[in-house]
Design a protein that fits this description.
The chain is α+β, with helices and mostly antiparallel strands. The chain has helices spanning 8-22, 81-91, 123-144; strands at 28-31, 34-40, 46-56, 62-73, 98-104, 107-117. Strands 1-2-3-4-6-5 form a 6-stranded antiparallel sheet.
């Protein structure tokens, strides 16, 4: 099957499940284009990573976004200038991803996210992205005194 954005609901979840299994990770399919992966840490903390179809790039490659929430925000909530600047500076230091605000339904979340070509995911890349994002988001939750995700 030719994997395109037009038929993404026919292949995306299956492909992610296969790559996750090869990487030694378990995922949960929420919909044909939305998947979650839960990560447990040694200190009894846990973190969720969302995997969603994003769209296509300039060459029509199907893209997916991995994101891990660190804070639920009000839909219209703004970050303070200092916090926003700190996150932008931290973006340059992160091994995986960048900080952003992701809107899901009527809620907004401070997330660390990464975009990847969906059709060429390798198990090593997948696992590295999941673990890197989960640990970064969990570190932010600890800084905020939370363990919500």
């Amino acid at each position: 099957m030719n994997r395109t954005i037009e038929n993404v609901d026919q292949w995306f979840a299956k492909d992610v499940e296969e790559v996750a299994a090869q990487a030694g990770l378990k995922v949960r399919v929420i919909s044909p284009v939305q998947i979650t992966c839960g990560i447990g840490f040694r200190n009894d903390r846990s973190q969720t990573v969302w995997i969603r179809v994003l769209g296509t790039d300039a060459e029509q490659n199907v893209l997916c976004r991995f994101s891990s929430p660190a804070l639920e925000m009000e839909a219209d909530q703004l970050l303070g200038q200092q916090a926003a600047n700190d996150l932008l500076r931290e973006n340059l230091q992160l091994a995986h991803g960048s900080w952003g605000v992701e809107v899901v339904g009527d809620k907004s979340y401070l997330v660390v996210y990464k975009t990847q070509i969906a059709t060429s995911m390798q198990p090593e890349e997948f696992k590295s992205a999941i673990l890197g994002l989960a640990s970064t988001a969990d570190a932010m939750e600890q800084k905020l005194g939370k363990d919500a995700y």
